[in-house]
Amino acid sequence: MNAVTLGMTKKTIKFIKNSDLRIKTEDILLFDLDGTLVDTDFSNFLSYQKAVKEVTGQDISMDYCFNSRFDRNMLERIMPNLTCNEYKRIIQLKNENYEKNLCKTQLNTSVADILKKYSKTNQTVLVTNCRKDRALMTIKFYGLNNFFSFSFFHNNYKNDNKYLTALSNLKTLPDSVFVFENDKSEINNAINCGIPCENIKNVSIS
């Protein structure tokens, strides 16, 4: 594999217009974090890369891919001979390295502007699959921590559908919710909860 090319890490972020939204004051806005509000893929990749080197002692070449997030499954595929302890240590160090790589993240300013605007009149909720400490670290880095009415993190979910958890805890109807999301499987989860397609804003970053 080829080493990551640092000069090709900036992405084009999809712009969401306020004028395209038809939000009423009683509506609740649900915001995903990774890939939607903030592009964290490159910082996540760098955190894994450094952790692998620290644990194995080897400067292993790893590709950074724009269209897929480097995760634990990918780590297992490229390094199938890791021991259980090495694998756990890499994950631990990856999490510790993330704070140092926050400067490599990229804010989706159009989504952040929507969050700031509607936080004054509506309930705005963070609904993310990432750990609480990393999520809070990320939104604080961009000064967004005071714009959310509620937050749901990975450890809050009792099932695989984060939107089902949010709707249940917020005690709201699906058609009173607007979703900002970039992941296709999560968009399907939102649809499966009964959230109208026209209320789901696909914030793909490419």
Summarize the structure in words.
The structure is a single chain. This protein is an alpha/beta fold and 206 residues long. The longest helix has 16 residues, at 41-56. The chain is elongated. The strands form two sheets. Strands 5-4-1-6-7 form a five-stranded parallel sheet, with helices on both faces. It folds into two domains: 11-40 and 105-202, HAD superfamily/HAD-like (Rossmann fold, 3-Layer(aba) Sandwich), CATH 3.40.50; 42-103. The chain has seven helices and seven strands, in the order E-E-H-H-H-E-H-E-H-E-H-E-H-E.
Helix run count = 7
Contiguous runs where pLDDT drops below 50 for at least 5 residues: 1-8
CATH class of the largest domain: Alpha Beta
Indicate the CATH topology of the largest domain: Rossmann fold
Mean pLDDT: 88
Elements, N to C (H/E): EEHHHEHEHEHEHE
Q: Give the count of structural domains.
A: 2
Gross CATH architecture of the largest domain: 3-Layer(aba) Sandwich
Query: Helix share of residues?
Result: 25-40%
Distance between the termini: 22 Å
Strand arrangement in the largest pleated sheet: 5-4-1-6-7
The 3D shape can be described as elongated
How large is the radius of gyration? 18 Å
